[in-house]
Amino acid sequence: MRFYRKAGLGLASAAVLAAAIPGVRHWEGRSLRAYQDIVGVWTICDGVTDGVKPGDLATPADCDARLMQELRSHAEGLSACIDDPLVAQIPRQTAAALLSWTYNVGVGAACGSTLVRYLNAGNWARVCPELSRWTRAGGRVIRGLVNRRAAERADCEAGLHEAGLI
């Protein structure tokens, strides 16, 4: 397991995790049986992929626990690649949208993205529009990802507007 130097800060706060859950559940859907997603990755519960194999089963309580564990891990991972002063400035609604995106694309992809470069540069106006670029799976545009990113972008921008950052 990778160690994240900023574990527990900013994006991993209870308020951000709680704000991210409804969106992630909506976009991921819940399956108590393992299945292969659109690109062939074994998945269970609300988009959980870590350690999932064919034939795996889960209960709703298992899924709730796994979702919280995965969200926390993704939040800590994303927090680790954002400069300290900026992590604390991200509004809750924006942080929840960015966490939903990171949960979907993975910490490595998120941390290596132009979106995070803009965030670390304090270029708030260019952060949320970057979400609209993440609409492909298996090399093709997926309508569900287009819809998800539009919702995440709207939440991202609403948080920044409310905080007066854009």
UniProtKB/TrEMBL annotation:
Keyword Signal: yes
UniProt-listed Enzyme Commission number(s): 3.2.1.17
Classification via Gene3D superfamilies: 1.10.530.40
Record-linked CDD domains: endolysin_R21-like (cd16900)
Catalytic activity line of the entry: Hydrolysis of (1->4)-beta-linkages between N-acetylmuramic acid and N-acetyl-D-glucosamine residues in a peptidoglycan and between N-acetyl-D-glucosamine residues in chitodextrins
Record PANTHER family: LYSOZYME RRRD-RELATED, PTHR38107
Family: Belongs to the glycosyl hydrolase 24 family.
HAMAP family per UniProt: ENDOLYSIN_T4 (MF_04110), SAR_ENDOLYSIN (MF_04136)
Protein name: Lysozyme
